[in-house]
């Protein structure tokens, strides 16, 4: 049986997704990703095409709504910091 709150979130896109492990993950839309990583839209999509940035996920049933899992974006940021520190040393 699907809880009513989950059925509603499937019917309309929200900023939280329930994973199969029952943890809530935050979903970031493009303006939030741009602000978080300091890159432009075109730079983000170029890095996705190059395989150097996490791709967005589809939100809901509509083909146009996309978002990024905040944990994946944060992991990418952490790797960038590690690379930067390693190159500086």
Secondary-structure content class: alpha+beta
Strand content: 15-25%
The biggest beta sheet reads: 4 strands, antiparallel
- What is the distance, rounded to the nearest whole angstrom, between the alpha carbons of the first and last residues? 55 Å
> What order do the helices and strands follow?
HEEHHEEH
Mean pLDDT: 83
Q: Multimeric state of these chains?
A: single chain
Low-confidence stretches: 9-14
Domains (count): 1
Spatial extent as radius of gyration: 15 Å
The number of distinct β-strands equals 4
Shape, principal axes of CA atoms: globular
What does this structure look like?
Helices cover 51% and strands 16% of the residues. Strands 1-2-4-3 form a 4-stranded antiparallel sheet. It has one domain (4-88). It is globular. It is α+β, with helices and mostly antiparallel strands. It has helices at 4-11, 30-37, 41-50, 70-88; strands at residues 16-18, 24-28, 57-58, 66-69. Strand 3 and strand 4 form a beta hairpin. It has 4 helices and 4 strands.
């Amino acid at each position: 049986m699907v809880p009513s709150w989950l059925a509603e979130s499937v019917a309309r896109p929200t900023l939280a997704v329930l994973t199969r492990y029952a943890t809530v993950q935050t979903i970031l839309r493009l303006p939030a990703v741009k602000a978080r990583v300091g890159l432009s839209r075109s730079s983000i999509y170029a890095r996705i095409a190059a395989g150097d940035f996490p791709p967005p996920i589809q939100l809901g049933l509509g083909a146009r709504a996309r978002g990024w899992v905040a944990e994946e974006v944060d992991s990418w940021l952490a790797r960038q910091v590690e690379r930067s520190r390693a190159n500086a040393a």
